[in-house]
Amino acid sequence: MKILLIRLRLIGDVVFTTPLLRALKRTFPDSNLSYLVEPQAEAVVRGNPHLDAVIVAPHATGLSRIATDFELARRLRRERYDLVIDLHGGPRSAWLTWCSGAPRRIGYEITGRTWMYTRTVPRPRALRSRHSVRNQWDLLEAMDGWPSGEPDPSRDSVEMLRDAQADARIARRLNEYGITAAHELVVIHVSAGNAFRRWPEPAFIRLVSGLAGESPCRRIVLSSGPSDRAAATRIADEARRILGVGSDRVVDFGEFDLAELRALIERSRLFIGGDSGPLHIAATTSTPIVGIYGPTEPARSAPWRDPRFATEAVEVAGLPCRPCDQRVCEPGDFRCLTTLKPEAVLSAAMRAMNARV
Predict the structure, then answer these.
(1) 100 SS3 class
(2) How far is CA 94 from CA 27, 140, 197, 305, in A?
(3) Which end of the chain is more exposed for a tag (fewer CB within 10 A), N or C?
(4) What SS3 class is residue 316?
């Protein structure tokens, strides 16, 4: 059986699909499994042992986007897939699913798109406390011959292949900064996909300076998206000013790609970050994690991995506006994040680092 999975756009969402790849190959070991992804998340599935092929949807805009999508559609049709599963549900992914011409096409029941599939699965519009992996697992259960049962993170955790070349590059950079195995490395991701998930800079400054100040052997590396590099620099500079003689404990690595980020996290004692792609990249390692949650909830988007590995979630509980659709902040003050105290994250960090597998 020749199967194509489609999941476009965001890094974290693609990470959340990786348990399905293992489960599909285990259930149908003789199947040929392909994955269609966009360039920014290609590294997540590149080299995945359960995949036979990775197809990258070209990034284009305007009229060129139309031309490239038609060429991609023709390519998918030539492959003659037996089954296509749309894990995304967006207009583009639904159209590509339909264009594949596969005799079986599974997707979410979304108004205006159900005709593009041969079988649909309900997806309630209301936000609910059910994990994203479980929501996508519903699509597998629509397959003929799929065994019943809930997904188990201890058996089907998220995964991303270790890139030996990326690890070597990170090793060289650590060496250039004088960071050895004797140092306790902590990675803190200060970016977020949108303003609704962005913890305030003063809170990050308190977190960085607090963690760095606790141990002369600790080294803090800040990561960020390209658009937040200036914010990361401000946070690092102010934390260094507060630390004074211990300012060398905050390291500016500059930019690194997804494979390098994973390699860095794998070598670290702790990862801290908001609900964004890097948090879920971190979940593909055994490194302890502290997740900072604002408008989203851990029940829906916590790292999906073996529960033996230390994973802490910090949130402001009891707010009637959580979770939200991240389009308008009803109270207007982003209180789900602005009232989340650095001390709570520092405490979670200590628990995570002191946990034992």
Answers:
(1) coil
(2) 25, 16, 28, 29
(3) C
(4) coil
Question: E strand or H helix at 137, and its extent?
Answer: helix 132-141
pLDDT tens for 129-156 read 789 999 999 999 999 999 988 899 999 9
User: Is 82 within 8 Å of 1 (Cβ atoms)?
Assistant: yes
Q: Which residues lie below 8 Å from residue 352, measured CB to CB, with a gap of 6+?
A: 270, 288, 289, 290, 310, 311, 312
Q: Which helix (H) or strand (E) holds 63?
A: helix 62-79
Identify the DSSP state of 304.
-
Burial class (CB in 10 A: 0-12, 13-18, 19+), 254: exposed
Please say whether the beta carbons of 11 and 281 come within 8 A.
yes
Go through the domains of the chain in sequence order and give each one's CATH number: 2-141 (3.40.50.2000), 164-354 (3.40.50.2000)
124 pLDDT tier (thresholds 50, 70, 90): low
Distance CA 204, CA 264 (A): 20
Q: Quick one: three-class SS letters along 191-242?
A: CCCCHHHCCCHHHHHHHHHHHHHCCCCEEEEEECCHHHHHHHHHHHHHHHHH
User: Which of 193, 171, 188, 177 lies closest to 236 in space, CA to CA?
Assistant: 188
Instruction: Give me the pLDDT at residue 227, please.
Output: 74
